[in-house]
Amino acid sequence: GTFQAQVSNARRETTKASIEPRHWIEEGQRVARAFLYLFFRVVGQRGSPEMKTLILNCGSSSVTYDVFEIDDQAETVLASGIVEEVGLGSSCLTHKRPGQEKAVRADLPVKDHREAIEMVLDVLVSQDLGVLDAVRELDAVGHRVVHGGEQFAGSVRITDEVIQALYDNVPLAPLHNPPNIQGIEAVMALLPDLPQVGVFDTA
Questions:
Q1: pTM confidence score
Q2: Is 201 a catalytic residue?
């Protein structure tokens, strides 16, 4: 029907935008800069301003990711990638590091966004493709979120109250907010001590 056609069109448009490496980097930089600003403004400067952040963009059937090392001067891309066809039976992971050939793993059984994010974390610390010695090197996770309604005017630290507001705004972005929430909740389960920040398209 019409609704299924809209879902299919949205997935095609999301995939076309997400597979372009420049899109990964530009979107990730926007979220990383916003998080760095929030970190210095709210938390205060630490002894060392360098941070390693994982940036996630969870679509209806994909998880796009970037890992940045950032400070108040620059953002350095350590890795970028995408898990496609999440929950559709046979997923594919594409992983790219600067100056290296991209790695592709196909026919992967990824049933949901949590499993996709688990796979991303495994790749980031793997011996052959990794850019981290351990997941604990990450300082924060940033999420691109499509719709924040009228509650959010910029980057915000993810709390239970923020998650509830995202659920409340699902009718405003029914194709996009649910997977955004799934990504946030997956990170909460997998990395409960890691701070998360949302940056909203409506900001």
A1: 0.78
A2: yes
